[in-house]
Write a structure and sequence with these properties.
77% helix, globular, 227 residues, Heme Oxygenase, Chain A, mainly alpha
């Protein structure tokens, strides 16, 4: 669904979400591990740390999305079905991420036994809290940030990592998969935005959640260098 096809509240919300995204993207450039990737100082150890720290967020993703779906009442059965479908699409993505980790030189035991970093803990706690509220339409803001990373950043990250480490020394299947598939997810998000963002206060709440999630996601990435 194109922006011009959205209802007027959804259009205004999308415009505000775009501004939140641009601010988030600007701050991503200052996260240490991504800054090293940009200037060519990214190492194999950096990539292994990135994958290890992202795994828990990926696993928890299908959990909060499923909880979100179950929290919509029967007046939103169509929304519930759409969100459940999204969770089904992604609930085993962590396996692809684990395979990349092993192919890059890590061990399955290490990535499966790693604890969540502080940013991941905070992000998961917030998302599960919001997903447990009745009709949690504001989580469209969370999806906007997280799916946006796949749509807008995963392809460039995959390309840069391959260039830095060499194709024979790393695997970037997880990033490439999301760069190819999250565009379709964003289109579904636009449809949900048109369905759920129908009043002024919806705009405020959706954008607030997007802002919180962007800050917690940055914290998750920054914590990679703190462990």
């Amino acid at each position: 669904m194109q922006e011009s096809q959205l209802n007027k509240h959804a259009q205004r919300c999308l415009q505000k979400l775009l501004r939140i995204w641009f601010d988030f993207e600007r701050k991503l450039n200052h996260v240490p591990i991504l800054e090293r990737l940009e200037r060519g100082a990214f190492t194999q150890e950096d990539y292994l740390s990135m994958l290890l720290n992202l795994r828990q967020q990926v696993i928890e993703g299908s959990r909060w999305i499923t909880r979100c779906a179950s929290s919509f009442d029967r007046d939103f059965s169509d929304v519930r079905s759409s969100v459940i479908g999204h969770a089904r699409d992604e609930h085993r993505d962590y396996e692809m991420l684990e395979q990349d980790y092993v192919r890059t030189g890590g061990t399955l035991h290490d990535i499966q036994s790693a604890e969540r970093n502080a940013g991941t803990e905070a992000l998961h706690a917030f998302l599960m809290y919001r997903a447990s509220q009745k009709n949690p339409y504001d989580l469209l803001g969370a999806m906007w940030i997280i799916e946006g990373l796949g749509e807008k950043m995963a392809k460039s990250w995959a390309q840069s990592i391959t260039e830095r480490l060499g194709q024979d020394h790393c695997s970037v299947d997880f990033l490439r998969y999301h760069s190819e598939n999250d565009d379709a997810h964003m289109q579904k998000l636009h449809t949900l935005l048109d369905r759920l963002c129908t009043e002024e206060h919806h705009i405020v709440t959706i954008c607030r959640t997007a802002t919180v999630v962007s800050k917690l996601y940055l914290m998750q990435l920054e914590e990679i260098d703190e462990k």
